[in-house]
Specification:
CATH class: Alpha Beta
Structural class: alpha/beta
Distance between the termini: 13 Å
Number of domains: 1
CATH topology: Maf protein
Strand order of the largest sheet: 2-1-3-4-5-6
Radius of gyration: 17 Å
CATH architecture: Alpha-Beta Complex
Strand content: 15-25%
Shape: globular
């Protein structure tokens, strides 16, 4: 079975990729599996730039097909913030609850029609095909609205699901089970966009 490195230090994200790539005939590897503890640079100006920086960094070290992503929350009423710095905008010491609660605080008093936001992701796939390196970058977004208060339970690794209301359902994204949330997620959309390349990696073609 051909291998695919899921280049993330986020355990929740790795678990979600396991759900999304189930049935792809790929052996999914973590950074720990390939003995890498170095951190990739994330100094790009966009999610796409960061995803590709990470995928190249880990592909060069592991030597196997590598999938990396970068993403975060964009809130229209906040001018697209926190954006590309979504997990670092309050500093390195901020935990998931602090991130979610700060969004709610900054959105206090904003009327419902102006509470639109999205969880965006860019995924980069770097792999070898017949001795030639290939790179693909795709982007996708889950559109929703910002809640007036945080959901009580915040899933570690996915802070902004606790403030996103699912369109047409009136519930928090965090309320859904892991599998249901994964099927709605921006990462599912990127996996779909990369489906043909992932099949080529699985088949060795």
């Amino acid at each position: 079975m051909n291998r695919l490195l899921i280049a993330t230090t986020n355990a929740a994200k790795f678990a979600e990729y396991r759900l999304l790539l189930n049935g792809q005939q790929l052996e999914l590897l973590s950074l720990r599996d390939v003995g890498i503890d170095a951190e990739a640079p994330e100094d790009g100006a966009s999610f796409a730039e960061n995803a590709l920086l990470k995928a190249r960094f880990y592909f060069n070290r592991a030597g196997v097909a590598t999938l990396a992503d970068d993403g975060g929350l964009e809130v229209d009423a906040l001018g697209g913030a926190p954006g590309v710095r979504s997990h670092r905008w309050l500093g390195e010491d901020a935990d998931d609850r602090m991130l979610a609660e700060e969004i709610v605080r900054r959105m206090a008093g904003v009327e419902p029609a102006l509470r639109t936001a999205r969880l965006r992701a860019a995924a980069a796939l770097v792999f070898d095909k017949n001795g030639s390196r290939r790179e693909r970058v795709v982007e996708a977004a889950f559109e929703g609205t910002i809640a007036e208060r945080c959901y009580a339970r915040i899933q570690v690794g996915f802070p902004y699901r606790a403030v996103m209301i699912v369109p047409g359902r009136g519930c928090y994204l965090a309320e859904l089970g892991e599998e249901a949330a994964a099927q709605l997620s921006q990462r599912r959309m990127t996996v779909e966009a990369l489906r043909d390349d992932l099949k080529r990696i699985a088949s060795g073609g």
